[in-house]
Specification:
- It is found in: Cell junction, Tight junction; Cell membrane.
- Keywords: Cell junction, Cell membrane, Membrane, Signal, Tight junction, Transmembrane, Transmembrane helix.
- This protein has 219 residues and is α+β, with helices and mostly antiparallel strands.
- The chain is built from 5 helices and 5 strands, in the order αββββααβαα.
- A 5-stranded antiparallel beta sheet has the order 4-3-2-1-5.
- α1 packs antiparallel against α2 (75-101), α2 (75-101) packs antiparallel against α3 (111-148) and α3 (111-148) runs antiparallel to α4.
Length: 219
């Protein structure tokens, strides 16, 4: 019962991780630059994401521009696009597989099949968490290095936006959920190895028939 409750808790964490992963991939505020000017139509907030760049104006207007060209983007943005999409796909697979393998569901067949499915789903969550953690870390490193670079003008410097923090938190949720699922299955397998089922040995019919003979039958 405790293991089923722990798996359900991990599943909830994984759901938060999946939704956060998708939100971080689509949000345009991976890096933010606030530039307050004296003109009323001066842009006060500029945001850049993986797929589009958006601008907030002091008049309340909001405009976005899609990044159509892939080859013109920096390498870290191209890598972030690929790995974040991969993280979303892996986490979605993990949700589907663990739904079958969880103890509180009636899908997946016997306990061994459910245990294997649960372990496979946990591996998907771990891979998804790593795939989401790598681009957010790389993206944050590029933002900080550009911010500390004295040769870059102040108007071109940015700070990490909300999408980066969402990516970090989602990757953490997926990693924790994956570890919990894998640990619950490994613990069960170790218990089966340490306490193997007892085998009942029954005497063969030949031995029973031989035991029925007496020495006087041969005299």
């Amino acid at each position: 019962m405790a293991s089923a409750s722990l798996q359900f808790f991990a599943f909830i964490l994984a759901l938060f991780g999946v939704f956060g992963d998708i939100a971080a991939t689509l949000l345009p505020n991976w890096k933010v630059n606030a530039d307050v000017g004296s003109n009323i139509i001066t842009a006060i907030t500029q945001m850049q994401g993986l797929w589009m760049d958006c601008t907030w104006y002091s008049t309340g207007m909001f405009s976005c521009t899609l990044k159509y060209s892939i080859l013109s983007l920096p390498v870290y943005i191209q890598a972030a696009r690929t790995t974040m999409v991969l993280s979303c796909i892996l986490s979605a697979f993990g949700i589907c597989i663990t739904t079958v393998g969880m103890k509180c569901t009636k899908l997946g067949g016997d306990s061994d099949s459910k245990s294997h499915a649960c372990f496979a789903g946990g591996v998907c969550f771990i891979l998804a968490g790593i795939s989401g953690l790598v681009p957010t870390s790389w993206y944050t490193r590029e933002i900080i290095s550009n911010f500390l670079d004295q040769t870059i003008p102040e108007s071109s410097k940015h700070e990490p936006g909300g999408a980066v923090y969402t990516g970090f938190i989602s990757a953490g949720f997926l990693l924790i959920a994956g570890v919990i699922f894998c640990a619950s299955c490994i613990k069960k397998q170790q218990g089966a190895w340490i306490y193997p089922p007892k085998q009942h040995h029954f005497p063969s019919t030949e031995q029973e028939s031989n035991a029925g003979y007496n020495l006087k039958d041969y005299v």
